[in-house]
Amino acid sequence: MKAIQARVTGQVQGVAFRWHTQEQAQRLGVVGWVRNEVDGSVLVHAEGEDDAVDALVEWCRHGPPSARVRDLAARAAAPSGASSFEVTG
C-alpha cells in the first residue's frame, strides 16, 4: 500500500480537474481526496495499491483534455484511512 500527496499546477482549476481525478481514482480503486487550493493549484491525496496510485499520479501529469498541467510535485504521505475518493474544497 502507498499514500502520496501531489500538488498539480498550471491551468487546473475551472476545467473539471477534480471531478475527472475522482473518476480516475474510483476506476483505479484509489481512495483519498482532491481539492482546489487558493494559489490556483490542485492538491491530491491518494492511497491504495502501489501500481494504482502510480497510475493516478501519471494521469494527473496531464489531467483532463481542458487542463494544462505545468508541474506535478508528489511526496510520500501518511495514510488517512479513507474509504472512498472525495472531491473537497
UniProtKB/TrEMBL annotation:
Catalytic residues (positions): 18, 36
InterPro entries linked to this entry: Acylphosphatase, Acylphosphatase-like_dom, Acylphosphatase-like_dom_sf, Acylphosphatase_CS
Enzyme class, first EC level, given as a word: hydrolase
Gene3D superfamilies per UniProt: 3.30.70.100
Keywords: Hydrolase
Catalytic activity reported: an acyl phosphate + H2O = a carboxylate + phosphate + H(+)
Domain Acylphosphatase-like: 3-89
TM ranges: none
Full protein name: Acylphosphatase
Organism, as annotated: Nocardioides cavernae
